[in-house]
Amino acid sequence: MNSLPWWRKIRYRVLIFGLLMSIFPLLALGIVNINNTWTDLERSIHRQNMASVRWIAKDIDQLINSSITKIELTTSAFADLTKETKTQQEIVLFSLLKEVDEIEEMALLNKSNSAISRVSKREVLPLAENDSNLDLLVQKTQYGSVYFTKDGRPMMNVFIPLWNKQENERSGTLKVKLSLRGIIQKTVGAESGGYYFVVDSQGNLIGHQDFSQVLKSTQVTTSEAVRKLLAQVSPLEVTAPLKYKTYDNTLVLGAFAPVSNLNWGVVIEQPVKEAMVPIYQLVYKLLAVMGGLMFTVIGLSIYFGLRFTKPIEKLEAGTRIIASGNLDHLIAVKGDGEVAKLVEAFNNMTRELKLKSQNLLKEKELLDKVVSGAGVGMALIKDDCTLSWANAQLRSWFGLRDIAGQKCFQVLGEGNNYCQPCLARKKQGDTEISGDMITSVLVKGEKKYFRHQVFALNPSSPDDPRYLELIEDITARREMEAMVIQADKLAAVGLLASGVAHEINNPLATINAYAQDLIERLQEQKDNIGGAEQDQVQVNEIIADLNTITEQVGRCGQITRSLLNFSRQSDWKLEPVDLNKLIQETIKLLGYRFKKSNIQLLTSLEAKLPIINGSPIHLQQVLFNILINSVDALEAGGQIEITTRKKLHWVEVMIRDNGSGIKEEYLAKIFDPFFTTKPIGKGTGLGLSICYGIISNLKGEIKVDSEAGKGTKVIILLPANGETDVR
Predict the structure, then answer these.
(1) Most exposed: 142, 375, 519, 707, by fewest CB within 10 Å?
(2) How many independent structural domains does the chain possess?
(3) Cβ contacts of residue 456 below 8 Å, gap of 6+?
């Protein structure tokens, strides 16, 4: 048994429990306190910021109004300023430039809005005959839109109407160009805690504590406070603090207020990091307190945890030792508490377990001897034919590793369906279901035969095995029976071949005698025939046909003698053999078969092929059988290739076809007697077996290489140096 991971040990659980019970309440209280303080601080900052922006907005409005009021008071001292001399007009205008710092430029306009006097702090301005920008019929003081100079400074034009008091009519207009930087800086620059800025009705930045932001035309419309100003949201509608990321991607707390009469807005933005410094200080203090408390609690938890859990850990370590098989181990614990009593009870249980384990071990050894010595496979099967257990013999036979959930017929039977008949389903009420059943199963590529016997059990629960199946491997017995049958067949074939050879020899002798007699008569008549050339040719053709008959009769005689010799196991007569010539003769014998099946025959015979020692009849029989097999494997229009060559000290004959080929599982059995893949009645299964015997007797080799659907190649190797002896 592996040791428990540290987080599952009681020592660490006690430690963790102590830490959690000590730290968690303080941590929860601290989090709640910090959260409430954070919320209260945000609301407090929001209230302060709202008050500040309202004050600044009011200051801006008052500053601009006070400047305009000064101008109006000065101009009201004259009955009609437009009727004064140009010198007097410029004196008045310059006095206003000097008195009001925010004025950049002033222009006195007549009724037709043409400039009659103009003054400026920064440059000398010529009078303009007509200025389209002054095309206004001003009846009361009006504020123009904010615009920016080339260097980026914000400006605003104010138009103040001038009146002729005697005639009580508008006599002209005073155009005042105000610099907003001075006005806004007087109010915004005086505040602290965050930064303030002012925007116009279009959201353009016209004032900022950092005036470089105005000169750079920084876009501030991404700030939520600016968006609310542009949407004309009342500050009174914003009850919760505004927290957002401003134009420079800084998280801030924002507030805003509009400037009366000007359609401007004042915004304050305070970075959260700066605003929440008191909260951060509180968190640091809380963490310091918690750290000190944690170290104290850890020390106490370790001390008491070790003291309380040491006996339990000894018990756990002892159980692991006992679980590993050491039943002689006893756990020693001091004291008289509950843990000590538990350990003593556990030691008593260990003694009882040791005694019973010894008895069970003896019974198991005895049972293993019986089961292993029987040499049979055993399996326990449930009511649904699921395997529950299999002994080592059965696992070895079928290569079983994991039998969980497998059906008996899938592993031990002949397929994926229930065995027919199924012994376990035939008579479920009998102690012995039936006598036996024989199955054949392909195990590791080899066909095995098994005898099955099934016995019913009396299970104590539905999940227990219902049947005991005994399985005996009878493959050797079946093979022995097959060998006996094959031996009987071979003996019968030998007797049959001997009888047939005897019976055929007599008619063959008669045919040969008559053919020889006809040849002699035709030779005599040929000499007596006149000089007719056509008659001479016909006689010669008949004599050639008769010679062929006598030659083939002689071959038949050799074959019958070979059959007699084979049946008598007679000695072979070895003689020099020209394999190329023998192949040509065999091809002639099969010429009709090749032509009938439309088979293309290709030959590549080495010209100077060495002569070998062998039996011509037997070698021709080998060639004949192999070529017949190739013809049978080919469909109409197939191809057979015959090649001979010298290979070191061997003569090689290769016969290749492009027929149906042989399946891989059959290749190991093609030289077995009576094994054939041909349909019933088309083959006996003796051809390749005889070929193998003939080549082996000549100290040669025969090899077959084939693949299903791609054809077959047969290679015959025979000694080339005349060293062959009959085995």
Answers:
(1) 375
(2) 5
(3) 428, 429, 430, 431, 432, 433, 466, 467
Q: What is the pLDDT of residues 306-316, one digit of tens each?
A: 777 777 777 77
* Rounded Cα gap, residues 604 and 623, in angstroms: 15
Q: Does 364 lie in the same domain as 409?
A: no
Q: Which residues have CB under 8 Å from 380's CB, separation 6+?
A: 387, 388, 389, 390, 457, 465, 467, 468, 469
Q: Is residue 86 part of a domain?
A: yes
Between the alpha carbon of residue 114 and those of residues 68, 125, 136, 174, 414, the distances in Å are 22, 14, 11, 11, 119
H or E element, residue 487: helix 475-528
Instruction: List beta partners, residue 470.
Output: 378, 453
Q: Are residues 352 and 385 in the same domain?
A: no
CATH of the domain at 618: 3.30.565.10
* Residue count (the chain): 727
CATH code: domain of residue 235: 3.30.450.20
* Residue 212 and residue 149 share a domain: no
CA quadruple 226, 227, 231, 233: dihedral sign: negative
Structural domain ending residue among the three candidates 274, 296, 316:
274
Q: State pLDDT tens for residues 390-447.
A: 777 777 777 777 766 677 766 666 566 666 666 665 545 444 445 577 777 777 767 7
Residues 228 and 250 in one domain: yes
Residue 204 vs residues 149, 185, 215, 251: alpha-carbon distances, Å: 14, 17, 11, 21
Residues 6+ apart with CB under 8 A from 711: 633, 656, 657, 658, 659, 660, 661
Same domain, 362 and 384: no
End-to-end CA distance of the chain: 66
Tokens of 438: 């024989």
In a domain, 491, yes or no: no
Reduced 3-state DSSP string for 185-252:
HHHHCCCCCCEEEEECCCCCEEEECCCHHHHCCCCCCCCHHHHHHHCCCCHHHCCCCEEEECCCCCEE
Q: Write down the pLDDT at residue 425.
A: 58
**Cα–Cα distance list, 645 to 517, 619, 673, 706 (Å):** 43, 17, 30, 21
Half-sphere exposure of 519 (CA within 13 A, CB side): 15
Which of 151, 180, 209 lies at the terminal end of a domain, its last residue?
180
Q: Are 494 and 476 in contact (CB under 8 A)?
A: no
Q: Which residues of the chain have pLDDT under 50?
A: 1, 128-132, 134-135, 190-191, 427, 429-433, 569-570, 680-681, 723-727
Residue 184 in tokens: 């806004």
Map tokens 């700030």 to a residue. 223
- Looking at the structure, do residues 613 and 702 belong to the same domain, yes or no? yes
What's the rounded Cα separation, in Å, for the pair 178 and 103? 5
Calculate ∠ Cα 695-698-700, nearest 5°.
60
Residue 624: exposure state from Cβ atoms within 10 A (0-12, 13-18, ≥19):
middle
Write down the pLDDT at residue 726.
38
For residue 24, the Cα-to-chain-centroid distance in whole angstroms is 43
From CA 427, how far away is CA 434, in angstroms rounded? 8
Q: Which two tokens stand for residue 379?
A: 């399996």
Q: Quick one: pLDDT at residue 653?
A: 94
Segments forming the whole domain that contains residue 594: 573-719
For residue 455 the two structure tokens come to 């016995």
- Domain membership flag for residue 622: yes
Say if residue 169 is in the same domain as residue 192: no
Same domain, 172 and 189: no
- Concatenate the DSSP letters of all residues of 133-176 into one string: GG----SS-EEEEEEE-TTS-EEEEEEEEEEETTTTEEEEEEEE
Of 143, 136, 99, give the one whose Cα is nearest residue 259.
143
**pLDDT value of position 544:** 83
User: Is residue 463 one of the residues assigned to a domain?
Assistant: yes
Count of other CB atoms within 10 angstroms of residue 385: 19
Angle at 489 between CA 485 and CA 492, to 5 degrees: 140
